[in-house]
C-alpha cells in the first residue's frame, strides 16, 4: 500500500462506521472500562454464529478495531473460530492477522483454502506474512506459496531460510534506502515520486537508510530531522553515521535488548557482507520484549509456553514432563527423610516441623532465583559484578535466616517447652537459608555460563538443594544433639 | 535541541572518538560478544578511580555510548559511583541519565550539588527530568527546582502534581501540534521555521497532532505520510481521525497495553477536558512494558522490586516480610500434620512420603498460577472466557494428577510391597493436583475481580491450599484405610 491509496484509506478511516471519536472505544456497548471486549458482546457473536446468522455476525464485528477483531477470535472457543473466520473473511485485514495469537491464527488459517491464505499473505508486509505461513505444515505451506506472486514468494522463502526467532526471519524486507550525496529536497521528491507506485514504499517507516554503492549502510536519518531541514542541505549533513546495525543472524532476545538499550524506533538489518537487507521496527519488537520478559515467570514454574490458547495436549505434555522431573527430586528429598525413620518414630514432632524448614528454604531460594534470572535477562548481572551479587545474596540470606531462626526457634522452644528443639530448628533454618541464597544465585549464573537458559532449568536444582538440605540439617541436628 | 544545533551534533557524532563504524561496538576491547561491558574494562576504571587518576578515568569512559556509560555506573560498586560521577561529569548527558537504574541514579545524584542537578535537568525532556527529580527528598527537590528556569520548573511541578506511574507524570510535554486546514507544504515550512528556535520542537517526534481551536486532537499524521504527499494536499486529507488518546490519569500498565494492542509509536495524552497536553513515545513505553512483564516472576516469588541495585536493607525488608507470611502458612500446614502424630509414630514411612504429595501439589499450583497471572496481565483472560479457562485447567489437573498417581502410586506399591499405601498416595496425588489446578486459577481471578494485584498475593493462598490439602488428604486417607 502506498500513498495514492493513502487518501482513499484515510477517507475510509473517517467514515462513520469506523467508530467516530476514539473515546467511543471505551465504555461503549462492546468494551468494558479497561478496553477489553465485554462478555455479553462475545456471547452475542457466539449466539449468532450458532444460529448460523452470518450477516448478524458480520454486523456485530464490522465496527471493531482490527486489534479487537483479533481479541474476539481469541475469546470465542476453538470450535467457533473457523465459522467466525468464514463469516467475517472480508474483515481479516493484515492488522487482524498480525495481532492474532499464534495458536488461534493456526485454528483460523486451517479453516481457509490455500488461495484465500495466499491472498491475505500478499497484503501483508513480509514479516507478518512469514508469521502467517511459518507454522503451517510443509504441504499446506507449499500450497499457499504456489498461489502467491513470484516476488512475494521469493521474499517469504528467503525469510524462511533463516532460523526461527532470528532477525532474518523477523525483519521487514520493505524499507527506504537512498544513496549518499543527495539533498533533503532530492529525498522528498524521491519519496513523493515513489508514493505513486503502491509497492515501492513500506506502509510506515520511521527512518531513511543512507547506503553506499555496495548497499552497505553509512548513515541514518530520522524523518523528523528531514522535515525540519531546508531542501538544499545535503543528506550527509543531517544523517547520523553512528547507528545500531542488527546482524541477520541475531536472536530475537538480542534484538530486543538492543532496542531497549539504545531506545530505537527502527534499525537496519545487515547480512554477513554488511549489506542492508531489511529493517526491524519497534512495534514488532514490543511483542518480543513483552514475550521475553513475561516468559521468565512461566519458565521458572515449568509451565512451558504458558499460552492459554495452546492445544490442551501440548500443555499437558509440557507441564507433565516438568512435574515428572520434580517427582524425581521430591523422591530424592524423601530418601533423605527415610534415613531418619527411627528418629521420627521415636519423636513424631520432627515430622511436623521438618516441612517448615524445607519449605522456607524453598521460598527463599525462589526469591533469589527470580531476582537473578531477571538480572541476567536484562544484562544487569554480568561477569563484571557476579561476585558482588553473590556477596549481596549471602548477606541477605544471613539476615533473613537469622530473623526466621529467632522467630521459629523461639516459638518452638516456648510452645513445646523444649529449648534444644528450638535451637535445632533455628540452626537448621539458618543453614537452609544460606543454602537457598547460594543455590539461588550460583545455579542460574552457572547455567548462563554454560549457555543453558537459566529460567528453564534452575528451579529444579534450587528446590532440590533446599529440600535435601532442609531435611538433612534439621533431622541430622536432631539426631546429633540426642533429641531423638 | 533543534536543527540549528543538529548539524553540529551530527558532525560531533562523526568524529573518530565516537567509535567510527557501529560494528566496533561489538567485540572490541570494551565489549564482550553480547555487547556488555567486559569485566576487565570495568576493573580498569575502578583501579583508576582508586588511584585518584581522574584523567585516566575520563579517557576510558569518554569513547563509550551513553547507554554504556549508564551500564558502567551500574557495574561499579556503590562506593565508587560518586567519584565516577565527579570524574566524568561532562559526559553525563541526558541519554546517560535516562538510561540509569533508579537506585543508581539516586546514588549519583546525591553526590552532585543542586545547581549541577538543575543543569542536567534543564537539558532533559520533561519526562526524563521528572524521573531525575521525583525520587529526591522534598528538601533536595526544592533546592534543585529553585535553581531551574521558571518555565522548566513549572513543567516539572505540573508533572509532579500527577500520581506516580500515570500518563500525566510520564508524558513528554514537548510535541508538535498544528491547526486543521493547513496544507502539507504549510506544515513543512512551519517545521523548518520552528527548527531555528532550539526549544520550539522536541528532539525527536514521530507524528504531528492536528488540533481544533480548543486544542482538542482531531487527527494525527505519521511523518512518513507527510513526506510522500505533495505540498498542495490539505493535512485533513492525509491525517487519520481515528486515533488512540491516552487520558492523563491512565496508569502506566494501561498505557503499555494500549501501545501493544494498537502497535503505537507515539500517542497523544489528553486532560479531563479532552485537550492535548502531552505525548507518550514508544521508547519510554518499552521500558514500562519490559518492567511490567518482568515483574510478575519477581512478585510471584515475593522478591519485591527484585532490583539488584536496591539498597540491601530495603531488599531484606521486602523479602523478609514475604517469608514471615509464608512462615505463618507453613505453620498452618504443620498443624495439620500434628493431628496425625500418632499415626506417624506408628508408621514413620508416612513422614517420608508426605512431602512428595504436598510438594508436587505446590509445583502444579505454581504452573497454573504463573499461566493465569500472565494471561490476566495481557488481557487474554477476561470475564468472557473465565469459565472456559477454569475448565481447561481442571482438565489439565486431572490428566496430570492421574499420570502422577500412576507413577508414584505404582512405584510406592512395588518398592514397599504395600498396594494399599500405593493406592493412598496415588489418590492423595489426584486430590492435590485438582486442588492445585482449582486454586491456581480461582485465586488470581478472584483477586483480580477484587482489584488486588494477583501477582503479589496469589502464591501464599495457592501454596497454603496445596500444603494443607497435600498433608490432609495423604495422612487422612492413611488413617481412614487403617494403614496406621
From TrEMBL, chains A, B:
It is a multi-pass membrane protein. Its main location: membrane. It holds the Pfam family MgtE. The keyword Lipoprotein does not apply. Residues 239-295 form the CBS domain. The chain crosses the membrane at residues 320-341, 347-373, 394-416, 422-447, 459-483. Keywords: CBS domain, Cell membrane, Magnesium, Membrane, Metal-binding, Transmembrane, Transmembrane helix, Transport. It is found in: Cell membrane; Membrane. Residues 9-37 have a biased composition (Basic and acidic residues). The keyword Zinc does not apply. Residues 1-37 are annotated as: Disordered. Coiled coil: none annotated. Acts as a magnesium transporter. NCBIfam families: mgtE. Belongs to the SLC41A transporter family. Homodimer. This is Magnesium transporter MgtE.
Amino acid at each position: 500500500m502506498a500513498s495514492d491509496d493513502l487518501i482513499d484509506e484515510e477517507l475510509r478511516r473517517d467514515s462513520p462506521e469506523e467508530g467516530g471519536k476514539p473515546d467511543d472505544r471505551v465504555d461503549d456497548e462492546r468494551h468494558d472500562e479497561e478496553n477489553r471486549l465485554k462478555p455479553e458482546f462475545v456471547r452475542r457473536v457466539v449466539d449468532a454464529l450458532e444460529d448460523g446468522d452470518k450477516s448478524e455476525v458480520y454486523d456485530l464485528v464490522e465496527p471493531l478495531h482490527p486489534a479487537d477483531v483479533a481479541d474476539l477470535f481469541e475469546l470465542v472457543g476453538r470450535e467457533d473460530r473457523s465459522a467466525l473466520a468464514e463469516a467475517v473473511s472480508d474483515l481479516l485485514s493484515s492488522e487482524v492477522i498480525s495481532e492474532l495469537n499464534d495458536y488461534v491464527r493456526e485454528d483460523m488459517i486451517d479453516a481457509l483454502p490455500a488461495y484465500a491464505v495466499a491472498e491475505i499473505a500478499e497484503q501483508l508486509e513480509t514479516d507478518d506474512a512469514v508469521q502467517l505461513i511459518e507454522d503451517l505444515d510443509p504441504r499446506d505451506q507449499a500450497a499457499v506459496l504456489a498461489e502467491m506472486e513470484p516476488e512475494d514468494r521469493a521474499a517469504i522463502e528467503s525469510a524462511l531460510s533463516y532460523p526461527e526467532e532470528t532477525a532474518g526471519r523477523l525483519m521487514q524486507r520493505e524499507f527506504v534506502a537512498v544513496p549518499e550525496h543527495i539533498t533533503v529536497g532530492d529525498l522528498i521528491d524521491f519519496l513523493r515520486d515513489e508514493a505513486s507506485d503502491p509497492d515501492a514504499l513500506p506502509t510506515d517507516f520511521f527512518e531513511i537508510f543512507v547506503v553506499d554503492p555496495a548497499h552497505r549502510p553509512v548513515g541514518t536519518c530520522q524523518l523528523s530531522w528531514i522535515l525540519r531541514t531546508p531542501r538544499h542541505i545535503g543528506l550527509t549533513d543531517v544523517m547520523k553515521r553512528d547507528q545500531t546495525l542488527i546482524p541477520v543472524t541475531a536472536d530475537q532476545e538480542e534484538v530486543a535488548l538492543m532496542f531497549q538499550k539504545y531506545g530505537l524506533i527502527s534499525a537496519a538489518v545487515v547480512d554477513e557482507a554488511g549489506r542492508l537487507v531489511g529493517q526491524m521496527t519497534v512495534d514488532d519488537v514490543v511483542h518480543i520484549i513483552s514475550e521475553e520478559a513475561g516468559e521468565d515467570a512461566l519458565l521458572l514454574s515449568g509451565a512451558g509456553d504458558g499460552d492459554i490458547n495452546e492445544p490442551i495436549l501440548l500443555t499437558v505434555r509440557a507441564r507433565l514432563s516438568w512435574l515428572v522431573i520434580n517427582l524425581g527430586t521430591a523422591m530424592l528429598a524423601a530418601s533423605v527423610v527415610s534415613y531418619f525413620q527411627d528418629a521420627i518414630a521415636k519423636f513424631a514432632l520432627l515430622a511436623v516441623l521438618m516441612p517448615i524448614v524445607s519449605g522456607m528454604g524453598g521460598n527463599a531460594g525462589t526469591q533469589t532465583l527470580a531476582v537473578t534470572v531477571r538480572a541476567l535477562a536484562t544484562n544487569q548481572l554480568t561477569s563484571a559484578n557476579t561476585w558482588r551479587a553473590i556477596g549481596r545474596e549471602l548477606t541477605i540470606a544471613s539476615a533473613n535466616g537469622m530473623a526466621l531462626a529467632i522467630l521459629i526457634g523461639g516459638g518452638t522452644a516456648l510452645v513445646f517447652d523444649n529449648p534444644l528443639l528450638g535451637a535445632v530448628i533455628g540452626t537448621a533454618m539458618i543453614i537452609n537459608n544460606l543454602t537457598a541464597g547460594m543455590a539461588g544465585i550460583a545455579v542460574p549464573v552457572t547455567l548462563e555460563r554454560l549457555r543453558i537458559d537459566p529460567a528453564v532449568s534452575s528451579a529444579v536444582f534450587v528446590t532440590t538443594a533446599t529440600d535435601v538440605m532442609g531435611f538433612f540439617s534439621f533431622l541430622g541436628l536432631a539426631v546429633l544433639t540426642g533429641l531423638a
